[in-house]
Amino acid sequence: MRVVLAEDLALLREGLVSLLESHDFEIAAAVDNGPSLLKALIDHRPDVAVVDVRLPPSFTDEGLQAALEARRQVPGLPVLVLSQYVEQLYARELLADGTGGIGYLLKDRVFDADQFIDAVRRVAGGGTAMDPEVISRLLARGTRDEPLGHLTPREKEVMELMAQGRSNAAIAQALVVTERAVTKHTANIFAKLNLAVSDDDNRRVLAVLAYLNRA
Amino acid sequence: MDAEVVIKETLPETRLQRHARAPWRGFCLGLLGWPAMFVSTAVVTALSLVGVGIGILLLPPLLMVTRSLMDTYRRLIGKWSGIQIDRPYLPEGEYKPGIGGQTQRFVKLVSDPATWRELLWLMLDPIVVFFTASLPFYLVLYGLYGWVLSAGLGKVITDHGGNDWYGFVHIQHGYWEDPAKIVTTVLLGAAFIVIGLLSGPALLRVYGLWGNSLLGPTESSRLALRVQHLTETRSDAVDASAAELRRIERDLHDGAQARLVAMGMSLGAIEHLLDKDPEKARLLLAEARQSSAKALHELRDLVRGIHPPVLADRGVGDAVKALALDHPLPVEVNAELPGRPQPPVESAAYFAVSEILTNAAKHSGARRIWVDMRHEDGMLRITVTDDGQGGASLDGGTGLRGIERRIGTFDGVLALNSPLGGPTIVTLELPCALSSPRISPS
């Protein structure tokens, strides 16, 4: 699997390179600023990109802007965004086109190598990987909004894990229930959110979007 | 600076009304000359008694009376002539009670140029007002007198052997038998009335300019007031940033620092336990890891409180949008900012909005909030509206006074309009220029 990597701190960049290479990823390019990231994304068309939000030259959300621009030119290009902070606003912008293949994680999630690599693979496969922090801040807003207000507490738990990008199997494991039960819950969620029957991955993304967009 | 917004329901005057009312208004301003004369006599007397010491005690209260009389002048001139006159006085300090403080106050008042300009006003104005603001009233009165003469008073005067001049018309024996003279008197009277009515507003304006030249602040008192304002806001700013530093220090001390100490201790214990009790060591390791995650989390929150990442990345528009997403109430944000203000202004505006939103959620009982941000006439103008129960005031623990003080550092002002029953509208205005978008310091 070919990866484009953008991180301005040399130490962290090399750490990520060796981590990804040791898990059989091929590094197509490792860059340290916004403009070269955009160029690398368009030129190499990687299977997945791992991108730091804050990059030179402006040290603002340069990485995020480059990723969004690349996805405008190459729809559905899988991008995993890493950041020192997670912001709902940025999560929404990333998910806005509804095509999936989006990850948004805190940088310290990299410490847990297995989970991180799992997230990279999930994003490369067109799924989502949202940081639990984004989800918990969403939950802090309460549940007065429709139509998510109709979800049962268990369905909300499933929704939360689904929003993080977990598979049904992983959700079943986390909630200590059977996978069949999880499938039933997800079907209920899709129905309550009026999501038409289509490819399951895409519906999961749309459900997450609905979850994020309640305002 | 009074920030309270007072909404007056006054209809604008028509031209006709203005002309009809001007003579009467000028007459009222002329009447103020009477108290002015008494006050000026009293002040001059007090000044002459300074030599024997009593004047030092008498003058300050008399000058306070003068000032309130001058305030009446300023208010009426502002209302009737449209020329707004600012108060020119140098700031009054705090004085010790007793003779020493009284003397200090006396010296301060006497060295304020406004005091002497007002004394000049007291002496000159009774004359000036007669030839400006009050003149139309007397013209109209004289015109009416002409009509009264031609309606019969002229006959009464001449019958009793008296005589009088009305303008150029000599009223003497035979006046009543000369229709030409009577008609002239009527026409002349009408002319006086018309001139009086026509010239009213213009002469009021002339009087306003005269008022502004003596009752308004001079360049130096303007500067003095400005210096006072800057001194106040600077000390507010220093206080605020010192308090902020203390808060950060406390947060670091109680939060991340304490966690790091705990981690260090756990790691030390792990070192000891590694061989003896690996199981316990594993437990402690997990704990240490949790501590590190918590420390990171706290540092993140702290940084968010100092300078939120979205604010740094995108500016105040998107930062407030991000704030709205985290807010417990639905907040609609409309931002029309073609560029970014200076970072300190941007940060002040952001934290002001943040606090207003927190307030609205806590106190107003609102169900929705709207935030509008735009840049107009060199001002960043932010309006926060909620549909709560209203009745908010600047004081009374709403924190609005604190916001006002903080944006005061940037010459910003805050206006509150919160009638009982709602809605509450808080408006912030911060003078600033916008830089072109997408240029930020690295």
Tell me roughly what share of residues is in helical segments of chain B: 55-70%
Rg of chain B, alpha carbons? 35 Å
Q: What would you call the shape of chain B?
A: elongated
CATH superfamily of the largest domain in chain B: Histidine kinase-like ATPase, C-terminal domain
Largest interface: A-B, 23 and 22 residues
Low-confidence stretches of chain A: none
**Mind describing the biggest β-sheet of chain A?**
6 strands, parallel
For this structure, the CATH topology of the largest domain in chain B is Heat Shock Protein 90
| Quaternary structure annotation | heterodimer
Shape by Cα distribution of chain A: globular
Bin the strand percentage of chain A.
Answer: 5-15%
CATH class of the largest domain in chain B: Alpha Beta
Order of helices and strands of chain B: HHHHHHEEHHHHHEHEEHEE
Please indicate the percent range of residues of chain B in DSSP E strands (runs of 2 or more): 5-15%
Order of helices and strands of chain A: EHEHEHEHEHEHHHHH
In what order do the strands lie side by side in the largest sheet of chain B?
Answer: 3-4-5-7-6
Keyphrases for this structure?
heterodimer, A: 215 residues, alpha/beta, Rossmann fold, 2 domains, 6-stranded parallel β-sheet, 6 strands, globular, B: 442 residues, alpha+beta
Structure overview:
- The complex is a heterodimer of chains A (215) and B (442).
- Chain A is of the alpha/beta class and 215 residues long.
- Chain A folds into 2 domains: 2-132, Rossmann fold (3-Layer(aba) Sandwich), CATH 3.40.50.2300; 141-212, Winged helix-like DNA-binding domain superfamily/Winged helix DNA-binding domain (Arc Repressor Mutant, subunit A).
- Helix content of chain A is 52%, strand content 13%.
- Chain A has helices spanning 10-22, 34-44, 62-73, 88-95, 113-124, 132-139, 153-164, 168-175, 179-192, 200-212; strands at residues 2-6, 26-31, 48-52, 79-83, 102-106, 128-130.
- Chain A has a 6-stranded parallel beta sheet with strand order 2-1-3-4-5-6, sandwiched between helices.
- In chain A, helix 1 (10-22) links the parallel strand 1 and strand 2 (26-31).
- In chain A, helix 2 runs parallel beside helix 3, helix 7 (153-164) crosses helix 9 (179-192) and helix 8 (168-175) crosses helix 9.
- Chain A starts with a strand and ends with a helix.
- The mean pLDDT of chain A is 84.
- Chain B has 442 residues and is of the alpha+beta class.
- Chain B has 4 domains: 15-131; 135-196, no CATH class; 227-306; 310-431, Heat Shock Protein 90, CATH 3.30.565.
- Chain B has helices at residues 15-31, 33-48, 54-81, 99-110, 113-131, 135-159, 179-215, 219-276, 278-306, 309-314, 316-326, 343-364, 400-408; strands at 164-166, 169-171, 331-336, 369-376, 379-386, 413-417, 424-431.
- In chain B, the strands form 2 sheets. In chain B, strands 3-4-5-7-6 form a 5-stranded mixed beta sheet, with helices on one face.
- In chain B, a hairpin with a 2-residue loop joins strand 4 (369-376) and strand 5 (379-386).
- In chain B, helix 8 runs antiparallel to helix 9 and helix 11 (316-326) packs parallel to helix 12 (343-364).
- The model of chain B is unreliable at 1-9 (pLDDT under 50).
